[in-house]
Structures are given as structure tokens and as C-alpha cells.
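# step 3/5: fold
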Amino acid sequence: MLARRACLALAAAPFLAPLVAQAEVINVSAAELVAMHLKADGITLDFPSLADTGASVPLGADIVAPAGQKIESIEVFLPANPNTRALKLKLAEPLAHFVFTTRLRLAGSQDVWVVATLSDGSRIGARAPTVVTSSACFDAS
């Protein structure tokens, strides 16, 4: 039979778990990404140049690894956001070709960066700019 305190601890666990689990926060500036001198060969991004709001901006990426290499992980960076790494995908098995789509929340107009780490530890990456527009009319005029 469970003691009263053990029952309370089990009942509270689902509510306390989010407070304990924390994601690794990686913040990389746009200057640091530019300084990496990433080659965009094999990366095609589908990202709108204009977005009505930054609430949910679609991103599509098609990544093909160079000959003899495979993609091990993919990261998406948004340098103007408070947490600049928006996404990290670690592939279960390295692949020569990977396609994904997602939606991003943007803090404002900025470049989105997609960086792929290859099997030899090198990186390739591409960026695409977008301008977040806001409604020009906030009142009845």
C-alpha cells in the first residue's frame, strides 16, 4: 500500500516535470554564423521573403550531402530571436538526402539559417531573409 505522501508525489509529478526538464539553449549571433563561411551547395530553402506576422512562418528545406558524405544532424537558427536555435534534428541514421518542413516563430525581420553537420564533422549551411510586415491600420481610419 502506498503512503499518502507517495500518492501525492505521484499525482504532482506530471505538473512538476516541465519545471525540471530544460532544453539546452544555444545562442549564436548572425555574425558568428557568417564567420563560419558555410557553403550552401546542396541546400535549397523554401522560405517566404515577406511574412504577414512572425507567428507562424513556413520553412521548407531540401538538403543533399556532398558525394561521399552523409547528413548527421540539422539545426535551424534565428539570430534575432531570444533563443537563436529554433530546431535541432539528430538523425537516427545518417542520410545522403533529407527533406523537412516546419513552421517558425520569428521575433522580427531576419535571416533564417539552416546548418547541416556532415559525417566528417564539417558543416554546410544556407540562409534566407524574410521581412515581417504588420498591418498598417490599427484603428478605423
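# step 4/5: annotate
Helices lie at 4-20, 30-35.
# step 5/5: archive (pending)
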